Every structure is written in structure tokens, then in C-alpha cells.
User: Fold this.
Amino acid sequence: MANVDGAWNVVVKSPLGDQQSVFTVASDGSAFTGNMAGAMGSLDVEDGKVDGDKLTWKMNLKVPMPMTLDCEATVSGDAITGSAGAGAFGSFPLSGTRV
Assistant:
């Protein structure tokens, strides 16, 4: 099990307010799968990549409008920090702790 694996309680600070969810990560070499499940539903990780303690991935958001989020995060012990990029809407901070 890599240091990035597990479940994370995360918060994305979006224009619609704080979006709380559980982000699950299961790495396999330089790739990972998982999802982010919260009040607005569950989003699957697409094109998940692992580089040491750094994760990059995409998610296809459907609510409140269809868009692809470009995400990145770094794991440091039991903390995760990063961002979710929403194209023309900007980039939103993401942070959390291991469950």
C-alpha cells in the first residue's frame, strides 16, 4: 500500500460553498483509481496518476453543470492538500485528512 492510499475526508472551497466529501484512493504503480463521494453525489477518478506523494486526476462533474475538473493533490503524512481546477471558473483549494 502506497502512502497515498486510503480514504480522505476532504473539503473543496468552491463558489457554492465548502463541498465536503470522502475521497478514496487505491494506487497501482504510477496509476490510481477511486472516487469522491459527497452531498452532490459520487464522482469517479479518471486518468489518475501517482508520482511519489503527488496525485493528479480528472473528474466529470454533472451538478450544478457539466464540466471536467482537473485536480492535483500532495499527501504529507495524514494530510492532503491541492486544488480542483474548473476551467474558466478558476481553481479551488482542496484539503483534508486521512480517515
Observations:
- The chain has a mean pLDDT of 93.
- The chain has one domain: 6-92.
